Structures are given as structure tokens and as C-alpha cells.
Amino acid sequence: MTLLTFRPVRIATGSEDEDGCLVFNEDHLIAVLVRLSDLHGDAEGKWFLEAAFGHLDHTARPSFDSLDEAKSWIGSQIEA
Amino acid sequence: MNSDYFSDAARHPMIRRLRSITDIPRVELDALMDVKMKVVEIDADIDIVREGERPTQCVLLLEGYACRYKLLDFGKRQILAFHITGDLPDLQSYHLEVMDHSLCTLSPAKVAFLSHQTIDYIITTYPKLAAALWRSTLVDASIFRQWIAGVGRRLAHERIAHLICELVVRHRAVGLAQDFRFNFPVTQAELGDATGLSVVHVNRVVRDLRSMGLISLAGGYVAVRDWARLKKTARFDASYLHVRGGEP
After folding, report:
1. Is A14 within 8 Å of B204 when comparing Cβ atoms?
2. Which residue of A has its CA nearest to B192?
3. SS3 content of chain B, % helix, strand, coil (to 5)
4. Which residue of A3, B86, B115, B120 could cross-link B174, Cys pair, CB 3.0 to 4.6 Å?
5. Which residues 6+ apart lie within 8 Å of B239 measured at CB?
6. How far is A49 from chain B (nearest CA, A)?
7. Which residues on chain B are in Cβ contact (under 8 Å) with A63?
8. How do the residues of chain A divide into helix, strand and coil, expressed in percent and rounded to 5?
């Protein structure tokens, strides 16, 4: 069973993509999500897996329509 | 001949490509002009030859873009090389029977097929052409080494700037980018697959290169706005391309 929590954060990506979330599994930082700006056209508003650690680091870098979707996916990857 | 591509040696894509990297005597160029090739038009995003196949012919790219790639787990793809007019992207199949990667078009393309028998005739009859084809595969290997260094160690901006610099020199070598503007029908996803970056990172980098005034990118063409600064950003040295006359 995983306990995922999200903490809002500003991220210096060097672009307009600044609104982000740190994703913790209990007290371990496991991922950083960033909300895509209008720089990305149709993908604007999606949550991009900017950085991932441990097991998650071996996957591709998907984007999610919502934080709930991101949470489900990250949870499934950790439990896989 | 079955195409006006071959009406004179100066316009023959394969001759332009081979002469950009080595000298070939007139008599051997004339022989190449007489080689029969089957010319085929292919849509974009079509596999020309796939990993595991045993081809009996090699491809000469006359027009358009192609890439060599490998498919990995989870639907990931690594593009190993981009190919442009005049390239022979699967010449290796003449010696190595089984394809160890795939070759596909990235844009609508026109290709000529040279049978392995034809290649056998060329290289056993014309020693300078044989040496030129060998040299061409060595240059391909040199480009692969640069790409490994890039994907493994270069920063995102350097990787994409370096790739654009490479394509400038390669297009100019076959007479297709004299004004530093060249055809680039490559999507940002494909650029990511070639450089090991996500589409999001490619987007950010391309935007930066544009806003720095180094390149413009529109309508399937890249135009280099500031060659000196683009090279500096990429830490680009064209010597690995082994083009006669060096870099612009």
C-alpha cells in the first residue's frame, strides 16, 4: 500500500512551465510534476513527469490530464 | 535511365554525396551513371526495411528524409540516424545479411533500389567507387560516435543545436543548403527520439534556440540565423563529418 502526497512548488525549468508538484511516497520524494504552459500547444494544462526517482526513473516521461490521473499512474508503477 | 535524376553527374544524388567525401575518377562516375536502379515513391512514416529482415537490395535516398531506428520496451524508440538526399542508409545489408535495426521514411520520399548484385558489380569492377562506399560507411560510423557522445553527455541545448549544425553541413555537402536553410520535416517527437529528450524538453529547447536568434523553424524548414553562435552553443566541430572542404 502506498501513501502518495502532493506538495505544490515552483520549479525553475528555464521556461514558462513553473507550476509544479513534489510527489512523496510517505516521506520519500519520488517524482516532480510540472503543469505545462501554452508553450506546448495542445498539451497546455497537462501535468508532465519532469523528474522521477528510483523505480519510476525507468519509465518514459508521460503527461497526465489531471493530478488524480498522475496519482493513479504513479501508484500503479510503484506497486507493479 | 529511368529517371531524369540521372541526366547528368552533377545532379546525381549518390554522386554528389560520394564526391563530397572523396575523389572519384570520371570513368567511374560515368559507370555509376549507367547503373540501372528502380525508383519508387514512398509515403511518410513507412518502413522501408525492418529489423530482422534479410534484404537483397540497398536503398539510395533521392528525395525526402529517412531515419534508422530501434524499438525498445514500453513503445520507446531510439532514432539512430537521420538520412537525407544522396545517402545510402542500409548499405550494410550488402555484407550483414540480417538487419539489426529498421529504416523508415519521415517524409514522402523518392528512393532508388540497388540490388546487392549491382553493388557487387560496382565494387568488384570500380576500385575507387568501392573505396568511396567503404569511406561512406566509415563516415556513418563517425556520425554514430558523435550521436552516442551527444545522447550520453551533451546538454539538451547542445544536442539539438549540434544536430542542426550537422544537418547544415550534410545538406550543404550535397548542394541543398547554400543559404543555411534546409528541409527539416521532423516532428518534435521524432527530434526527441533522436536526442533522447522528451517532447516537452524539445519544445523548450527549440523555443530557446529561436528566441536566442539562432534558428527559425517553419513550414518544414530550418533556417540558421546565426551560424557562428549556433556552432558555439553546440560546441560543434564538423571534422567528424569528413566533408571535403571542411565546414562553412
Report:
1. yes
2. A61
3. 50, 20, 30
4. B86
5. B246, B247
6. 10
7. 200
8. 30, 40, 30
| ipTM entry | 0.91
Q: Which residue of B has its CA nearest to A41?
A: B203
Which residues form the domain of A69? 4-79
Per-residue pLDDT of chain B (248 residues; tens, 9 = 90+): 344 455 666 678 899 999 999 999 999 998 888 888 889 999 999 999 999 999 999 999 999 999 999 999 877 899 999 999 999 999 999 999 999 999 999 999 999 999 999 999 999 999 999 999 999 999 999 999 999 999 999 999 999 999 999 999 999 999 999 899 999 999 999 999 999 999 999 999 999 999 999 999 988 999 999 999 999 999 999 999 999 877 77
- B191: closest CA of chain A, how far (Å): 15
Model pTM score: 0.93
Residue A60 has its nearest CB partner, among B74, B203, B204, at: B74
Using a CB–CB cutoff of 8 Å, tell me whether B198 touches chain A: yes
Grid coordinates representing B175? 548542394
**Within chain A, where are the H helices?**
67-79
Same domain, B114 and B181: no
